[in-house]
Amino acid sequence: MKWVFRAVLLVTFGWAAWAMWPNDARRIRKGIGQLAAAVSFSPRDGNIARLASIEATISHFTADAELQVDTAGYAARTLTGREEIREVVALSRRADDGLQVEVFDIVVTMGPGPDEASAALTATARSGNTELVAAQEFVFRLRKVDRRWLIQRIQAVRTLQK
User: Fold this and answer.
1) In total, how many domains does the chain have?
2) Domain of 56: which CATH number?
3) Which of 35, 72, 103, 115 could cross-link 60 (Cys pair, CB 3.0–4.6 Å)?
4) Handedness of CA 89, 143, 80, 160 (dihedral sign)
C-alpha cells in the first residue's frame, strides 16, 4: 500500500513541476494566445482599454519586427518596426464592429539557435457578429530577449490561388 501512495505522490509532484515550469514551446504558445487576445477588441471597449490593448499587442514584438501580410482580397503589405505596427493596430481600433482573433494548431519548432524558434499556426478573425471574415495561415519567427519570447517576423502563408 505504501508504494501506491508513493507512486501517486511522485506523479502529483511531477505534474506540478511540469505545470509550474513550462518549457519554451509552451511559453511561446501561451504568448501567441495572449497576442490574439490583445489584438481582439469589443466595440464597447473604452479608449483606455483600447490603448492598453495596443500596448499589450506591441509588447509581443521585437524592436525590429517585420509583419508581412498577403491575404486574398487585400494588397500585400509589409510593416517594419514596432512603431509602424502600432500605427496599424491603432487604426484597426477605430472600427465600430470590434474584432475577435483566435489562433489554432500552433506548431512550435525550436532552433536553429538556442534563442530562436518558429511557430506555424492558423488564425481566424471575426468582425462584430458577422460570420468568419478571414482565416489565414502564418509562420512566426521568434527570438528570446531577456528571457521573453518576442516575435521578430510574421509572414502570411500563401495558399493556392486560381
Assistant:
1) 1
2) 3.10.450.50
3) 35
4) negative
